[in-house]
Sequence to fold (171 residues):
Amino acid sequence: MKLTGKKIAVLVEADYQDMEVWFPIFRLREEGADVVVVGTGSSTTYRGKYGYPITVDFSADQVHAEQFHGVVIPGGWAPDRLRQYKTVLDFVRKLFESGKPVAAICHAGSVLVSADLVRGKHLTSFNAIKDDLRNAGATWEDKEVVVDGNLVTSRRPDDLPAFMRAFIGLF
Fold:
């Protein structure tokens, strides 16, 4: 199991894309990772776009980047909420700046924009936010997965197998 001894955060908020939370959680656990669900603190339980609930382990103000080896940021409508919390942005930025793997899928690129992490980077996302990423200084590519250093990005749920292979591969 490749990720034994690794602690990985998965960020959540209301209206997360259900598959983009649960597929990574199960895949990371399958590899032996200690997966920690981190929310914004606005609730202890969130529902996905399709109604599936998830209970958080901690809120973003209760965790520190130094405690983790990487983070997965799912899409859906949750990133619009996640990006409004300074503690979430600081957490993601510190992980990124320390060289730890940061993975963002679908609309999660908006969290990377708000954390000021995309300038000069190659990445992908859901088509609807490509202009936001380009305007923030990124080079956007229409590929199932793009890896640029410790940053892994994908477009949509169909890309999850490639997304998780790339993320796990960084360890």
